Amino acid sequence: MTRLKGNDSNRTVLVIGTLIAAVLIALALFAVRGRPAAGDGQTVSFDLSNQPVLGQEDAPVTLVVFEDFKCPNCKRFEEEFLPEIRSKYIDTGKAKLVSLNFPFLAQNARLPVDDSKLAAQAAECAFVQGGSQAYERMKQILFRAQGSESEVWASASRLKELAGSVDGLDQARFNSCLDGNETAAAVDADERQAQDARATGTPAIYVNGRLLPSYDAATVGAAIDAALQ
Q1: Residues 175, 102, 131: CA angle, nearest 5 degrees
Q2: Which CATH superfamily is domain 53-228 in?
Q3: Which Pfam families does the protein's record reference (predicted)?
């Protein structure tokens, strides 16, 4: 998993006494009370309305996958592990996969252009026009074209060029959608869901609301099998 980076600049801790330390600990415990930590077995609820879906809507198991198009581990999941998961579970109607955006890598790298978010907006622009099928096609193209995490590769001009390979898209409408930031709010809403679910990186995969410890096909498959029982 590609993880979020913490901010280490203001982490100097000054301990004045046992009483103050005890108070700080008590406050910390109060702040996190009732908030499930990532991977602690708690079930998370998501708003999955109007989201791209791979598979049958009425599948008994739901996979929620948060990804950043600049994330190399997401590319690995999509190209190495997802085909097996799709063949065994999605194409057979046992599970569906819902894709959400968690763009953070460009900000982590302090790039001059937030192309993590721009790429997510491009995928959402494809979804607006062509639904889940167009989103899936655009997603595949974006991961195939993926460049370095430390460089801006998903520029607006490059994204428009890539969108030309998605059958059925009106290029002028796509360009207007991307240039006008028409899907920025949808991407922001996805990111808030990732933060609320306390996702710590990408790909973050939830099976029926439970965060998995890994994104390999064996781990995902075992979780789906357990959910089907």
Answers
A1: 45
A2: Glutaredoxin (3.40.30.10)
A3: Thioredoxin_4
pLDDT (tens, 9 = 90+) of the chain, 229 residues, equals: 888 775 444 443 333 333 333 333 333 333 323 333 344 568 999 999 999 999 999 999 999 999 999 999 999 999 999 999 999 999 999 999 999 999 999 999 999 999 999 999 999 999 999 999 999 999 999 999 999 999 999 999 999 999 999 999 999 999 999 999 999 999 999 999 999 999 999 999 999 999 999 999 999 999 999 999 9
Determine contact, residues 204/100, Cβ cutoff 8 Å: no
* pTM attached to this predicted model: 0.84
Residue 217 CB contacts under 8 Å (≥ 6 apart), including other chains: 80, 81, 82, 84, 85
Least Cα distance to 123 among 136, 107, 106 occurs for 136
Task: Quote the CA–CA distance of 73 and 77 in Å, as a whole number.
Answer: 6
